[in-house]
Amino acid sequence: MMKLYYAPHTCALAAHIALIDAGANYETQKLDFSQQEQTKSEFLAINPKGRVPALLCDQGLLSESPAILSYIAQTHPRANLAPLDDPYKFAKVQEFNAYLASTLHVAHAHGKRAERWADDPQAKAELHRKMPQVVLESFLLVEKSMFKGPYVWGEHYTICDPYLFTFAQWLEADSVDPDMVPKIRDHRHMMLQRQNVQTAIKAQLQSN
Amino acid sequence: MMKLYYAPHTCALAAHIALIDAGANYETQKLDFSQQEQTKSEFLAINPKGRVPALLCDQGLLSESPAILSYIAQTHPRANLAPLDDPYKFAKVQEFNAYLASTLHVAHAHGKRAERWADDPQAKAELHRKMPQVVLESFLLVEKSMFKGPYVWGEHYTICDPYLFTFAQWLEADSVDPDMVPKIRDHRHMMLQRQNVQTAIKAQLQSN
């Protein structure tokens, strides 16, 4: 059985949804970020990065959302969560998730995690100030150049959908008007109707 | 035939090396970053991100180094550039490259590309000041928790090796002493002895 380490309101929601989508055999372990549990020695012994999501598999630990999502898709082919038989289409799925991880999520992190890149309070305030603009630009590139609709890659749901949805849930908190990215807004609404998405969100908010 | 869009001294070197390693049928197109060619309409029509590497394949464009590297490995299985038959080991390769893309490369970018996240000159100066520390911390995590040696995953060369090498080439420019990460320093030295690495570096520095 796999074990997903997560914290509520983090990008670990995407992996959680994908595990349910896959029909995977898994359990979860919640970390309390308010108590900085992710930086304590017990968790660092599991994941030296001190981050979630982290997925404990039979063969060892796996981190980084794009890798976890692709692993879930590859090990549960019957769930059809990625175009596994077409290397180009599979690479496009990786490309999409890589962009969310290394550009969109990074843009978002300059709001609440500015201390990663700056110590000076005024510089951190400047990163926080510019963050909504950078996040919006990143979402606009997704909206205009990548998103097919109704799902990310068209009619077929993939591991890109829960990952995009997870970040779209943070639009208002990032001071970005969802109406600026109407396709992503509508995708978020559609995703919220899915039973698996609701199940993952409810499970993450329960104590455990 | 594939076409690799690149600029010298960028992370596109990794894809270039991997194409040679794979024995791929490809050509290259150099962009002149000093002339901002990557932001001009001709290139934006090819890659709306305005970034390199970008790999034009028969089926369309591919961007994001981790996706490009995995695509090269998957489409050239005889080159044995990734553990394609083991989903967990393949995911570990993705995890490694995802970390370089979304943490190590991002840390580096706060030096010369601070304008992505800040407008204020003092804030940009602060990002530049802290950059070497953040880059070092990221390399140290690779050195201590990920790198097996002599190659990233042990005795077997993978698509993680040219990607790590590419960033290790920037250590001095990022004001990080290579002796702080001796395994990565030695890996860089070993990589520089490889004919394919020398071929890619020379090709990128030629006019085209």
Written description of the protein model:
The structure is a homodimer of 208-residue chains. Chain A has eight helices and four strands, in the order βαβαββαααααα. Chain A has 208 residues and is an alpha+beta fold. Chain A folds into two domains: 2-79 and 197-205, Glutaredoxin; 87-194, Glutathione S-transferase Yfyf (Class Pi), Chain A, domain 2. Chain A has a four-stranded mixed sheet with strand order 2-1-3-4, with helices on one face. In chain A, helix 1 runs parallel beside helix 3 and helix 6 (160-168) packs across helix 7 (182-192). The first copy, chain A, starts with a strand and ends with a helix. The interface between A and B is large, with 48 and 48 residues.
Characteristic terms for this protein:
homodimer; 208 residues; alpha+beta; Glutaredoxin; Glutathione S-transferase Yfyf (Class Pi), Chain A, domain 2; 2 domains; four-stranded mixed β-sheet; 4 strands; 52% helix; 9% strand; globular
SSE order of chain A, as H and E?
EHEHEEHHHHHH
Mean pLDDT of chain A: 97
Tally the structural domains of chain A.
Answer: 2
Rg calculated over all Cα atoms of chain A: 17 Å
Question: Which overall shape of chain A is indicated by the principal axes computed on the Cα atoms?
Answer: globular
Number of strands of chain A: 4
Strand content of the residues of chain A, in percent?
A: 5-15%
| The top level CATH class name of the largest domain in chain A | Mainly Alpha
The most extensive contact between chains is: A-B, 48 and 48 residues
Structural classification of chain A: alpha+beta
Q: Give a quick account of the main beta sheet of chain A: strands, pairing sense, barrel closure.
A: 4 strands, mixed
Q: Share of helix among residues of chain A?
A: 40-55%
> What is the end-to-end distance of chain A?
17 Å
pLDDT below 50 for ≥5 consecutive residues: which ranges of chain A? none
- What is the name of the CATH architecture of the largest domain in chain A? Up-down Bundle
